[in-house]
Amino acid sequence: MGIINKFFNKENENSNIKLSEINNFFKRKNLSVTNDLSEVTYFICMKVLSESLGKLSIHLKDGDGKKITDHEALKLLAIRPNCFMCPSTFKTLLEFNRNHFGNAYAYLNYKGAKLVDILPLRPENMKILIDDTRDIRINSSYIYQYFQSGKIYYFKPEEILHFKGGIGRDGLVGKSVRETLASTIGSAKESQRYLDNLYKNGLTANAIIKYVGDFNKDKKEKLVKEIAEFASNDSHERIIPIPLGMDLVPLDLKLTDSQFYELKKYNSLQIAAAFGAKPNHLNDYEKSSYANSEMQNLTYYVDTLLYILTHYEEEFNYKLLTDEERSKGYHFEFNIATILRGDLKTQAESLNRLTSGSIYTINEARNYLGMPKIENGDVIMVNGSYVDLHNIGKAYENRSKGGKKNDKSSE
Fold it and tell me: Of 230, 261, 292, which closes a domain?
């Protein structure tokens, strides 16, 4: 790896770059995966985005839009990226890492010139080293540094598929939503923790014990502990015994008075909006219904998935195709038809129009519905009354000429 030797001054004797001059960019914060995923809105958004990408098939097409099926990179992406994962699991994992950690990485394992594996890497073990001592007008070189089992590995940029999440400030790495919305997600977790504690206490609010006299610290703690045990124990049928001369005054704080539900719902919608998830993904059908699911899927595709899929396609095109293949128009493309399908009536009307409009063949329409091909079904059909644009009106000219001949014959 010549670039590594250049960075560490092993081959280039004229290089003045030292190890201390290589910046270590963007160290991963020590964030807890479990705590963030325990928040239901965050988990749902991660699940929706990850599974949305995982269920889409990917195709390789040429400049004319015809599918290419014998490409080694396509076989890995469509059949088996590596010996551990199927394609849907692989894509789901990449999208999860991209959203949760802000970056997703996959190593392109070559044996000679043949690509044999695409292996996902743990984002928390990856760092980017960049040489910023060169002229600012020249693109700075960078490499990937990866830690695994006590060993350090270095990769060239062309050996790593790198998918960035969120909105980064430099274009080198992405930034996860949980880092951007740390306070908002923290508030959602606190509200969930408050409800959990409320259920543990038997939905009993806090209370004040009124008494005359003075207790030392140990007696106070013992008294509070005993009363709390009675209050949270269902076997006592909500009966709380208190000593003579004391009075238990509950602090009646109602969730409705503090608008707890409204604030929690608003917080959830804000988190979902940051991910690009729609309210119906959170089972919020207050302003929508099952009937307009097709339009919701279209909105979700245009507003959220389109950018994500474009990012994946561009990375695949650059890292998995050669210059010669790209010059021929080869490009990867996700099949989004699976998420844009409507109800049966809408599908039937759309396929009928596409077939009668000479866009789909009969077999293409049947393939869309998962039905087998039929004989002579690959022929484009067109209405027999259609004429070319430059022949429009000739039918009327012939008709008028025929009318004149009839008039002469009658004479």
Answer: 261
